[in-house]
Structure of Leucine-rich repeat-containing N-terminal plant-type domain-containing protein:
Amino acid sequence: MQLFIIISLICLLFPVHFNNGRKLSEQEALLGIKSAITDGPYNTLSYWNSTMQPDHCTWYGIICSNSSVISLDVSNLNLSGTVSPDIAFLTNLQNLSLAQNTLSGPLPSSLSSLKALRVLDLSDNHFTGPLPLSFSEILELRHLDLTQNNFSGEIPECFSQLRRLTTLFLNENNLHGSIPEFIGDLQELNALGLSDNNFSGRVPQKLGTNGKLSYIDLSRNVLTGNIPEPLGRCRPLSQLYMQHNLLNESIPKGLFGLLNLTDVDLGDNLLTGEVEIHDSVAVNLKSIFLSNNQLSGTLPPSIGNFSALQFLVLDGNSFTGSLPREIGNLHNLCTIDLSSNSFYGSIPRESGNLQQLAYIDLSSNNLSGKIPPQITNSTMLMRLNLSRNHLAGDISWLTGGVDAVDISYNMLQGALSVFLPNLRGEGDNLLLKLSWVVYALDRKLSDDYHLLFQAKR
Ligand SMILES: *[C@@H]1O[C@H](CO)[C@@H](O)[C@H](O)[C@H]1NC(C)=O
Ligand SMILES: *[C@@H]1O[C@H](CO)[C@@H](O)[C@H](O)[C@H]1NC(C)=O
Ligand SMILES: *[C@@H]1O[C@H](CO)[C@@H](O)[C@H](O)[C@H]1NC(C)=O
Ligand SMILES: *[C@@H]1O[C@H](CO)[C@@H](O)[C@H](O)[C@H]1NC(C)=O
Ligand SMILES: *[C@@H]1O[C@H](CO)[C@@H](O)[C@H](O)[C@H]1NC(C)=O
Ligand SMILES: *[C@@H]1O[C@H](CO)[C@@H](O)[C@H](O)[C@H]1NC(C)=O
Ligand SMILES: *[C@@H]1O[C@H](CO)[C@@H](O)[C@H](O)[C@H]1NC(C)=O
Ligand SMILES: *[C@@H]1O[C@H](CO)[C@@H](O)[C@H](O)[C@H]1NC(C)=O
Ligand SMILES: *[C@@H]1O[C@H](CO)[C@@H](O)[C@H](O)[C@H]1NC(C)=O
Ligand SMILES: *[C@@H]1O[C@H](CO)[C@@H](O)[C@H](O)[C@H]1NC(C)=O
Ligand SMILES: *[C@@H]1O[C@H](CO)[C@@H](O)[C@H](O)[C@H]1NC(C)=O
Ligand SMILES: *[C@@H]1O[C@H](CO)[C@@H](O)[C@H](O)[C@H]1NC(C)=O
């Protein structure tokens, strides 16, 4: 509470005296904005000309209501230059988009005079400097997008006054410090993007308690601690990206039961524990990326209930157990990467049901038994990596059709005699089609084969 009072005081110490008593009409303000900008190749702003068009409400990018400018959208025009402080005189402005230009410099703090502003999109420019504290006075702000700039410093605590925010995008800047707790308290927030910065510390633990968040991207920062538990109960959640951080502990319970969930990437963290799947199943889930964590446990048969799944990427963990036959129910699957885990047992022949499969990597596990020929059933199949397992038996059925195969480091002895003629049978065509070297059998022979492949190229 004390902290809150202190913060409020700091924020109040920034009184608004930007205009030095000047008073500009809206048209004069627009011309002031124009004069700080270098027009792009389309010369769009040359039509902002009171001789040619006396009514500025007809100018490019302007929408008026009751003769007053409520929207200014000059996005994607290759404009350069800076934002003039004169913008403060567009007092009824609700929407401001300068996105996708090459505007630069720090933002004028006079932006805070725009008390009606709801949408502020400055994404994809070259703005620099700290996030202006004065933004905290734009109390109507709903949508704030500063993605892809070079803003630096921390997220000011005073932004906690922006209680109406539904969208906050600060991706791809040069920001650091912790993600302030208040972000977990924003009741209307439905999309949060803070990726590609240097944010550290814990993720606000109340994130998801508002029951409205549907999009979260915190990827590629240096965040530590756990993923907030309330996210596992946040029913609108659709996309969750937290990859490339230092997050530990387990994945929130309930996450994979959320009906609106479509995409999850939590790869390259320090997550532990098992992936729990309960009665409710995220039937809309298209992609699960959990690469390079320390996750353990088995793949339960209920994995087959994720009927929309296209990408199942679990490589570089400590998963174990056998591969459930129910994988064959994932009819939309196009990529399965279970490599570098401790799966054992045989490869289920039901994998032949998967007609969309383009990429199969089951390498570096403890799989044994024969390779079921059905594994190449998908006409889409481009890459098959089964290397570094204990697979055995005959592979004469493997005759091209796949762009790249790696079956090295298995126990497929004796099959080479069958395998090589097949390759030779199709001659150079097959060799050229194979973009990877076809490794086979034991190491010695695969080295020979490698040489053969090099020679043919
Ligand atoms: C406005 O348009 C008139 C007529 O085309 C032109 O003479 C004048 O230079 C323009 N003014 C500006 C500021 O571009
Ligand atoms: C339009 O502006 C006039 C004068 O500023 C004001 O009296 C009127 O209420 C406004 N109308 C609307 C719909 O905002
Ligand atoms: C706009 O700017 C980009 C990057 O500076 C440039 O690649 C592009 O060609 C420009 N577009 C036009 C129409 O000049
Ligand atoms: C302001 O932006 C919002 C969201 O992009 C849009 O729905 C609305 O129509 C815009 N209003 C005006 C006046 O441009
Ligand atoms: C971003 O700003 C920093 C200073 O804060 C500067 O050193 C760096 O060169 C800038 N990067 C780009 C891409 O403008
Ligand atoms: C993060 O910080 C490191 C070291 O301070 C710096 O090299 C790196 O460019 C920063 N990354 C981003 C995305 O700001
Ligand atoms: C997770 O990381 C946090 C912060 O780095 C640490 O305090 C905590 O002990 C870690 N938890 C576990 C189970 O390792
Ligand atoms: C799930 O998504 C649908 C369609 O986008 C939406 O209508 C529905 O409100 C969402 N459900 C929840 C609980 O937010
Ligand atoms: C999920 O899969 C299991 C095992 O395959 C099955 O018994 C169960 O009925 C399925 N549940 C749902 C909700 O589809
Ligand atoms: C593979 O299985 C063998 C026994 O079949 C076991 O000794 C070994 O530890 C297993 N390796 C891994 C990585 O699970
Ligand atoms: C795989 O393909 C073969 C031959 O094309 C077919 O006989 C078999 O039924 C297929 N298996 C599955 C499981 O779809
Ligand atoms: C197949 O997987 C192994 C181990 O995971 C890896 O070392 C090898 O490079 C992969 N093969 C190809 C051709 O990418």
